[in-house]
Specification:
By secondary structure, the protein is an alpha/beta fold. Helix 9 (289-299) packs antiparallel against helix 11 (345-356).
């Protein structure tokens, strides 16, 4: 169908858009025209589409000006040609009345459009008549044009809607614009509701507090305002001058802000923490070295080095006080107890606190990776808290407690900082008298605190931190010490836990020794405590079930029934019965241990195979051992064919456990020499030492732990480096008397002491 083109008088509308079906009254004279074209105009630019409007009425204003009432009919497209007649502007217009599209294209759009507009009207609390008007519009084009009635549409959006001639596209555009309005209104409503609910909550809290104050006044219980209460607490606290000034500054801010300020709670929390620190409160220290030694001896068997160091600390403090020597804030004692688990490192802290008559607080540092755990968070962060040291002082209630820094060797580090760096200031006697927590932001005097750190190994403690510590080694207990601990401490404790009285069950020291030797193989006594608990549970079950009458004497049969089969044997004789196996001594994170180094020889390419999860240092020791044996084949009575044209394999069970360290050098050398000379290693001999290519035996560490492990494994002789001879003083007297020690300087001495004599072996083989 050919479009209809008419010539109409053009009426420009500045920043105004009139849509079809709208009625407007304009101050102008249309002459004799019955229809005109209303075109939006902005800054001299006309829209591409206007509205063909019909003149409904004409008139004059009291001043004589013309006025006309127009009603929009349909859209019209402006053509380029335009003419002027009688001083007026005319334009050719292609009339474009709305075409009704098939319902299948518009039904879903109409439904959604009506729903969105209904929700907008509900959010605006609009007049119900507007909704009725919307429901009365049935034509899809006219329905889309109702979007123009929205006061939120911009001039550009209205022009865009007018220029969309296609009804389906116009309906889609109108729906998009109404969705934007709905989303904006929903956000506004949510913000308004949140603000109103917050204001109502504040008003409600304000009125309730005022009512509470009035009630207290009527009852004569008026204690004054919150500010007055904080002021009294600050006056009563024995704060240093700097801390008091900080507290009064924050109190002044609180007083100026009032209860309605969002910072009020933050300031109150800060003041609460500031007041929670026990400023000036200290325990009355008991400086009695003899009494302290009695308490330590009563609580713990062995650990002589630790007890002597604590007694020395008390003796020095006592002399300084008695002689009027001013306390030196830079002379704090930072004891660090290093040793395997279960040796009593943590529990001795409580005994030290009891001996000193101080409060005891334990801080577990295992796995701590955030520096703020030590120094605290800055108050600008949400949920900020002081560090653990401030919390420890609060829990202790005094400024001079004993603080146990447990598992200090397991402190980590990541993007949140390095806690060990913060501990440098805490543990340094030259700095900790002025420690500054980030949250409190005031100086804390930690010089009166007795810090005791614990760890399993010293190697994982950072060097600068370890430099500030006084390390005391916990090398484990002998069998006799374990029996004494079991009798005096573990057995009574486990008996009470299992509901048994002292007169209901008895056990001999011989059975204690059996349990220690056959069911535990540890440096400490933790596994021993578990085994005794298992035994007493079995005993309690028999007594409670009526199968036995107290007093019940524990015998070997009951031990086997409760604990099962024997778990550990004296296997050195069996393992070293064949040539190529040597017994070495090592130190692990759980204490000393016995390692059996096995060697074998195979025909083929000359190479060395190492198994058993060995570290780089042990691999180098194995290479050195093989090189030494090959270089000294003549001295060992070997032919060149014995060491050439063969591959060797060294294995250190158990393969699932990583092992490293230089102290297995002489053990690997002995195993290879035993294999090649076919002389077995004496089953009573264990050894430890580092070896060089020249055959020198160099010193090692952890001698005491290794000797205790050898003693527990049934060995009676230990070969050690000559330069470790002085370390034998650390070995308990009963162990030194039960064993023979051979300090050596060279591998030749080791082989002479460790290998069975050649003639004896030949006779045995025959």
């Amino acid at each position: 169908m050919k479009p209809i083109v008419q010539k109409y008088l053009l009426i420009p509308l500045d920043d105004t858009v009139v849509f079809p079906s709208m009625t407007v009254t304009l101050p102008l004279d249309t002459g004799d025209e019955s229809r005109v074209l209303l075109v939006p105009r902005h800054e001299g630019a006309y829209a591409k589409v206007g509205t063909v409007a019909e003149v409904e009425d004409k008139g004059r204003l009291p001043g004589g000006a013309h006025v006309v009432t127009l009603t929009g009919l349909h859209r019209g497209l402006l053509h380029a040609a335009e003419t002027r007649e009688n001083g007026r502007l005319y334009v050719d217009v292609e009339e474009r009345p709305d075409e009704t599209p098939p319902p299948v294209k518009t039904r879903s759009l109409e439904t959604e459009y009506r729903a969105v507009v209904e929700e907008i009207l509900e959010l605006r609390d609009a007049d119900a008549r507007i909704g009725q008007f919307l429901r009365s519009v049935v034509e899809p084009g006219a329905l889309a044009d109702t979007c123009a009635y929205s006061p939120d549409l911009t001039f550009e959006q209205r022009v865009r809607l007018l220029e969309t001639v296609d009804v389906v596209e116009r309906l889609e555009l109108a729906l998009s614009l109404q969705r934007e309005r709905l989303a904006e209104l929903q956000v506004r409503r949510r913000i308004r509701d949140d603000v109103e609910s917050g204001a109502q909550a504040q008003q409600r809290e304000y009125f309730l507090r005022k009512q509470l104050e009035s009630i207290r006044k009527e009852l004569g219980e008026d204690d004054g305002s919150v500010v007055d209460e904080y002021r009294r607490k600050i006056d009563d606290a024995d704060m240093p001058d700097e801390v008091r000034e900080q507290a009064e500054r924050e109190l002044g801010r609180l007083e100026r802000m009032g209860d309605a300020s969002p910072e009020t709670q933050m300031i109150r929390t800060y003041l609460d923490w500031l007041l929670a620190v026990p400023w000036g409160d200290t325990s009355d220290e008991r400086l009695d070295p003899k009494l302290a030694r009695e308490i330590l001896d009563a609580d713990h068997a062995g650990l002589q080095d630790v007890k002597e160091r604590i007694v020395e600390y008390l003796a020095v403090r006592k002399l300084r006080q008695e002689r009027g020597i001013e306390e030196d804030k830079r002379s704090g004692a930072i004891l660090t107890l290093i040793g395997p688990p279960g040796t009593g490192k943590t529990s001795i802290g409580e005994s030290i606190a009891r001996a000193l008559n101080r409060e005891f607080v334990r801080m577990s540092l295992g796995g701590v990776r955030d520096e703020a755990e030590i120094r605290g968070h800055r108050r600008t962060y949400i949920g900020a808290l002081p560090g653990r040291l401030v919390r420890a002082l609060r829990d202790a209630g005094t400024m001079n407690p004993v603080i146990m820094l447990d598992e200090v060797d397991k402190v980590g580090a990541d993007w949140r900082g390095d806690p060990s760096a913060a501990l440098l200031e805490v543990l340094d006697p030259a700095q900790n008298h002025s420690f500054r927590d980030h949250y409190l932001d005031v100086e804390l005097d930690l010089s009166q605190v007795v810090f005791i750190a614990t760890g399993n190994v010293a190697e994982t403690i950072p060097g600068p931190l370890l430099d500030r510590m006084e390390v005391i080694r916990f090398d484990g207990y002998t069998v006799d010490e374990k029996v004494a601990i079991a009798r005096g401490y573990l057995w009574p404790r486990q008996r009470e836990r299992n509901g048994l009285r002292e007169d209901e069950v008895e056990i001999s020291d011989e059975l204690f020794a059996t349990i220690v030797a056959e069911y535990t193989r540890e440096a400490g006594v933790r596994q021993l405590a578990r085994e005794l608990g298992k035994l007493l549970r079995k005993t309690a079950t028999r007594i409670a079930g009526g199968d036995a009458n107290p007093p019940l004497a524990v015998d070997d049969a009951l031990v086997r029934d409760a604990l099962g089969r024997q778990r550990f044997w004296q296997e050195s004789a069996e393992r070293t019965a064949v040539p190529g196996v040597a017994t070495g001594l090592a130190v692990t994170g759980t204490g000393g241990d016995v390692l059996f180094v096995e060697a074998t020889r195979m025909d083929g390419e000359e190479r060395l195979t190492l198994t058993g999860q060995l570290g780089d240092v042990m691999k180098e020791s194995a290479q050195i051992a093989l090189s030494w044996v090959r270089a000294h084949a003549d001295e060992l009575g070997l032919s060149p064919d014995d060491v050439r044209g063969h591959s060797f394999h060294l294995h250190v069970p158990a393969g699932a456990i990583p092992k490293d360290g230089p102290s297995a050098g002489i053990t690997m050398t002995t195993a290879l020499a035993s294999l090649l000379t076919q002389r077995p290693v004496k089953h009573t001999v264990g050894m430890t030492g580092e070896v060089t290519l020249q055959g020198r035996v160099l010193p090692i560490g952890g001698l005491k732990q290794k000797v205790l492990a050898a003693h527990a494994a049934g060995l009676t002789e230990v070969i050690i480096p000559e330069r470790n001879r002085a370390d034998l003083d650390d070995v308990p007297q009963d162990v030194r008397e039960a064993m023979t020690f051979h300090p050596v300087l060279s591998v030749d001495e080791v082989l002479e002491l460790a290998l069975e004599p050649a003639q004896d072996h030949a006779l045995q083989a025959a």
